[in-house]
Amino acid sequence: MTATQIARTTSPAVLDRIASVTLSSVVLPLSDPISDAKVLTGRQRAMTEVVFLFAEIRTEGGHEGIGFGYSKRAGGPAQFAHAKEIAADLIGEDPSDIGRLWTKLVWAGASVGRSGASTQAIAAMDIALWDLKAKRAGLPLAKLLGAHRDSVPCYNTSGGFLHESIDQVLENATRTIGEGIGGIKIKVGQPDWAEDLRRVRAVREHIGDRMPLMVDANQQWDRPTAMRVSRALEEFDLVWIEEPLDAYDAEGHAQLARSLDTAIATGEMLTSVPEHYELIRAGSVDIIQPDAPRIGGITQFLKLAALAEHSNLQMAPHFAMEIHLHLAAAYPHGAWVEHFDWLYPLFNERLEIRDGRMLLSDRPGLGVTLTEQARAWTVDTVRIDAAR
Ligand SMILES: [Mg+2]
């Protein structure tokens, strides 16, 4: 044992130690095969399931935290395998020192990089540590971080996909508004963009001029098409146009952002803070859309939020509203949270929505617990309780 290790084991500042990490791979089936523009352009198959990586961390002092990441179409087994390989590095560590533990885990897997599946494996554990810290403090995560608001405007994505007819999308929109959700997002980016415009017009006429409406092209336009269609979309008073271009085309997004009145939003596909930093530096976005499980967890999200705040960006985090409600509430500038009903079967708790906004609850931490159904959908699990 080195002198540093002895000092750490004897320091009165060490409040608790991580005793075990339980990792679970959970396959959530979707009721309908889901199609966005990536399916219509032939780049991806329709999505039939989402694979979640849950991390449950317990301490010697009896505290617990839960976190999760996810993958769509591919990557679930890779995230699980990587987490399983590095989780032992958490055993015996003080769970409060989250930044140091993130760095330790990323160095443990440094040869496979600081983005993508490797960092996403860390995200589940990082989020569990934040959940644990907030629960120990008896606070909702947003309050631990410091909330700027106790509710966040929310919009619905799960009713606007391209596998559904326009009549079905209109029916979904009516239901969404009836549920108190504050905005509607529909998918565009089809090979025939005239059909996109027809759907947007139909939805705008159906929901009226006042209801916030967004569109999402899922990266399927090239630069000239994005410019032409986005200009045609200006008349619909959209809150934003999402992913008009390839996720890594920072300059192309910047050209659009400079040329249009409608806000440009992107960022969900990026898998690290440095990748997001490229968008911010290039002036690519008005509204940044980070995804905490994709960029390495809450520790990384907070670094990105500081950069975005400094650049006066609005924020609309992607997916995983159970996590992002807290992070959007803690963001100083304007923020939205994305509503998906897909994850409802996984959690015992339901987020409250009223008057267009999603409300923070007084439950400590993330405020979620896994259902028996989620346990039943577990396809692989491992409990790690010994340091390597
Ligand atoms: Mg999107």
Architecture overview:
- The chain is an alpha/beta fold.
- It has 2 domains: 3-138 and 372-384, 2-Layer Sandwich (Enolase-like, domain 1); 142-359, TIM Barrel (Alpha-Beta Barrel).
- The protein is built from 15 helices and 14 strands.
- It has helices spanning 3-10, 37-40, 76-86, 98-108, 116-137, 141-145, 166-178, 193-207, 223-233, 250-259, 273-282, 292-295, 298-310, 321-329, 372-376; strands at residues 18-34, 47-59, 64-72, 151-156, 184-187, 213-216, 240-242, 263-266, 287-288, 314-315, 337-339, 353-354, 357-359, 378-384.
- The strands form 3 sheets. It has a 6-stranded parallel β-sheet with strand order 5-6-7-8-9-10.
- Helix 4 packs antiparallel against helix 5 (116-137) and helix 11 (273-282) runs parallel beside helix 13 (298-310).
- The longest helix has 22 residues, at 116-137.
- The two termini are 14 Å apart.
- The structure holds magnesium ion.
- Magnesium ion binds at residues 216, 242-243, 268.
Brief sketch in words of this structure:
This protein is α/β, with parallel strands linked by helices and 388 residues long. It folds into two domains: 149 residues, Enolase-like, N-terminal domain (Enolase-like, domain 1), CATH 3.30.390.10; 218 residues, Enolase-like C-terminal domain (TIM Barrel, Alpha-Beta Barrel), CATH 3.20.20.120.
